[in-house]
TrEMBL record:
The keyword Lyase does not apply. It comes from Solilutibacter silvestris. The keyword Transferase does not apply. It catalyses: 1-(5-phospho-beta-D-ribosyl)-5-[(5-phospho-beta-D-ribosylamino)methylideneamino]imidazole-4-carboxamide = 5-[(5-phospho-1-deoxy-D-ribulos-1-ylimino)methylamino]-1-(5-phospho-beta-D-ribosyl)imidazole-4-carboxamide. Its EC number is 5.3.1.16. GO terms for cellular component: cytoplasm. CDD domains: HisA (cd04732). It is an enzyme of class 5 (isomerase). InterPro entries: Aldolase_TIM, His_biosynth, HisA/PriA, HisA_bact_arch, Isoase_HisA-like, RibuloseP-bd_barrel. It comes from the Bacteria. Pfam families: His_biosynth (PF00977). This is 1-(5-phosphoribosyl)-5-[(5-phosphoribosylamino)methylideneamino] imidazole-4-carboxamide isomerase. One of its GO terms (molecular function) is 1-(5-phosphoribosyl)-5-[(5-phosphoribosylamino)methylideneamino]imidazole-4-carboxamide isomerase activity. Pathway: Amino-acid biosynthesis; L-histidine biosynthesis; L-histidine from 5-phospho-alpha-D-ribose 1-diphosphate: step 4/9.
Amino acid sequence: MSFTVYPAIDVRDGRVVRLRQGDYAQETRYDDDPLALAMRYADAGATWLHLVDLDAARSGGYTLAPLLHAISDRTGLRVQTGGGVRSVADVEAILEAGAQRVVVGSLSVREPELVTAWLRTFGDEHLTIALDTRQDDAGEWRLPVHGWTEESPHALFDLASRYADAGLCHLLCTDISRDGMMAGPSLDLYRELCRRLPQLAVQASGGVRDVADIVAAREAGCAGAVLGKSLLDGRLLLEDALRC
């Protein structure tokens, strides 16, 4: 299986930002213009971009279609993007705006029957299911919702298996405790996920600091890694990440 590096751009109020553990009150803003940053990532050799609409993730209604158009037209990057995806019309609009894959997060936990139907409608190459997880006191990986403030009835491995059986290919999995913390990826989690569900192309997200973390995620069985804060803070050069 090939391995893909996904530089990430999170956008809020038109600006590039990063949140700490998904907390909107713990936001770091960067000077970069989102389009200019995407162009730099393309110039560095990236082939994919992970684009997140943080405004839509909170309120619904994807707002980045003009930016997505511009990125597609001016960089040649393939884009997976989401935030606030609630309906078939949302998926259609994002694909029409130039995305290769639409990322479905909260809805994939709240309404799995609806989202598994979308896999049949749009095909497995046009959807990425994003499951954000954290371990409970018993050591089970749970799937909180509503900004990670409420527990859902679903466990990670059960729901991921359900999607795999429905034909899912691309799974983005974030360990909430590692998100924005620069503490390294949750390798034991990814090893277990890839062992149980080898048919999934798992994207590691959260905590990736350096080339060694990328190599470790690949050796754990992941098909890709999403890089956010490490690139924005200059701790990791995209060119080095792509070479590894």
